[in-house]
Amino acid sequence: MRLSNVQYDRIMKEYDEDRMSAEMLADERKAYIFSHIDGFKELSDRIASISLESTKRALSGDKSALTGLSERILELNRQKEQLLISNGFKADYLIPEYKCPVCKDTGYSDGHKCRCFIQKESAILYDQSGIRSMLSSADFNKLSERYYSGEDLERFRESRQKSLNFVNKFDSDYQNLLFYGTVGTGKSMLSSCIAGELLKKNHSVLYFSSATLMDELAKSTFDKSGSSSGRSDNPIQEGEFLYDCDLLIIDDLGTEMTNSFTISSLFTLLNERFLRKRPVIISTNLSLEELQSRYTDRIFSRLTGEFTFCRLSGPDIRIAHKFVNDL
What we know:
Layout: H1 5-36, H2 40-59, H3 69-86, E1 108-109, E2 112-113, H4 115-129, H5 132-135, H6 150-168, E3 177-181, H7 187-200, E4 205-209, H8 210-222, H9 240-244, E5 247-253, H10 260-276, E6 280-284, H11 288-306, E7 308-312, H12 317-326
Helix pairs in contact: 2-3, 6-7, 10-11
């Protein structure tokens, strides 16, 4: 699941419009200040003049031309700020108010996608994944214990608490979660609850079923057309959002076709996110023994070393819920 050229261009057009709007407003403010505050324009002209003069002298071989230049400019800027403040304006009144001060509404910072770009990208891809429809019922406060009892209930409560801790400490502690156990015991629901809470906090979250994820990784690997995602003119590699989004959720691990390619791709994806300290949540109906057997010791050792395990057990809630409603 990748951005199309149209989607990429739409994001960049939005950045262009936001940036132009911020800079036009700054220009309008500057024109007003120049015409209403005596001496302000003269200070600005003075800065431009001494900068140009010093540069010319330096290019002519004068080694002392730039000596003290930054201090002189700093002092003139201080005088400008004082004029603004004394006339009732904030010191930063003329600085463009970009929606994202990090990338200045360009989408990129230091040659890499800015976090705000990743959030926009993730929102589009998340909508395409179809999981937003699940979030309407995904709420920690609405989780019911009615279908659990005994040891199953204890496991559910423990998994719910680990999920809440994951959300509450998301910005301070690097964590990964693996939900495993029998079919229909709430693994995907807990993942959705976490996703919903983090989306409310403007984190970028991507959800894939394991089968869909492997299909997308295969497309990225074997598609040689170079026509996808609109990123042919920037250094960001295909599928970068999988490595850099704030949270990646892989649902139903084990339902994909397992072969050397999928195992290698899964290891590469997990390892890259581990290196970048980007959290992952995995849910699976496989037992720990089945996970080890299917995905080799190399992947299993990374799972046991990097993930907090949450076991869920009990009846299939979907079947139990339907049975109760049919009574």
